[in-house]
Amino acid sequence: MIVEKNFLNKLKEFGLNSYESKLWTALLSRGSSTAGELSDIATVPRSRTYDVLESLEKKGFIVVKQEKPIRYVAVPPEKVIDRVKVRIEKESLERMSLISQLMQSPMLETLNELHDKGLKLLNPTDISGILKEQGAIQHHLASRFKAAKKSISIMTSDEGLVRKAKALHALGNALKGVSVRVAAPLGKGVGKLASELSSIAAVKEARLSARFCVIDGREATIMLLDDSAVHPSYDTAVWVNSPYFAQSLERLFDSEWKRL
């Protein structure tokens, strides 16, 4: 039986591997069949067929009929989807429970201590990276805003102001005690946004065309392209965890801030 490779790949979303997908679709086309017949139809090695069919039974995709020879019956796809949904929900609840337990356990403190000790041994070049695509950059910036302890200094475009305002508003009280400064062009459509940001950040209209962010004078994220001239998919940024570089960039920000 010939089944499109793309279709078989989609069946992986049900939690099936290649052999499982082939045997299940073969059985669906037959309704009921023996292991030998399915092996020939699905072109799955006979030596693997029995253990793969056993796996499909455990997952609820097929039913075994105790006859001679043993026959297998496909479970209707609608029922399979319901079973997969229940299994995924159960696994998700179990994982969330494990994560909650980890967050409250001494193990997390131990892991954090190991991480902090490891950071002291790292060269700044080991904790820097390139970020590609606007969504990935925004996700990164949101995580860095959340990690800020003392200060956040942002120089951005008018479009960038809209994106960063969402991230800052989402953090809300988490930024309490953090000095947030934003310099950006305040053209039409963003003036009101700047006013709404006033409860979280000090906002001034920028004259310098630049896109960067400095966190606590220790790390910096620099956007390399003009976001008004590049597709979001091609936007690129560099993140550097270097106090020397970050403080130099913050001095540039301070100098411009005083002139605004």
Would you write up a description of this structure?
With 260 residues, the protein is α+β, with helices and mostly antiparallel strands. The chain folds into two domains: 72 residues, Winged helix-like DNA-binding domain superfamily/Winged helix DNA-binding domain (Arc Repressor Mutant, subunit A, Orthogonal Bundle), CATH 1.10.10.10; 134 residues, Endonuclease Chain A (Endonuclease, Chain A). The strands form two sheets. A seven-stranded mixed beta sheet has the order 4-10-9-8-5-6-7, with helices on both faces. Strands 1-3-2 form a three-stranded antiparallel beta sheet. Helix 8 links the parallel strand 5 and strand 6. Helix 2 crosses helix 3, helix 2 packs across helix 4 and helix 7 packs across helix 8. The chain is elongated. The N and C termini lie far apart (72 Å).
CATH class division of the largest domain: Alpha Beta
- What is the count of helical runs? 10
Mean pLDDT: 85
In CATH, the architecture of the largest domain is 2-Layer Sandwich
Number of strands: 10
Strand content: 15-25%
Subunit arrangement of the protein: single chain
Span of the ends, CA to CA: 72 Å
Supply the helix-strand structural class. Answer: alpha+beta
Please state how the strands of the largest beta sheet are arranged side by side: 4-10-9-8-5-6-7
Provide tags for this entry:
single chain, 260 residues, alpha+beta, Arc Repressor Mutant, subunit A, Endonuclease, Chain A, seven-stranded mixed β-sheet, three-stranded antiparallel β-sheet
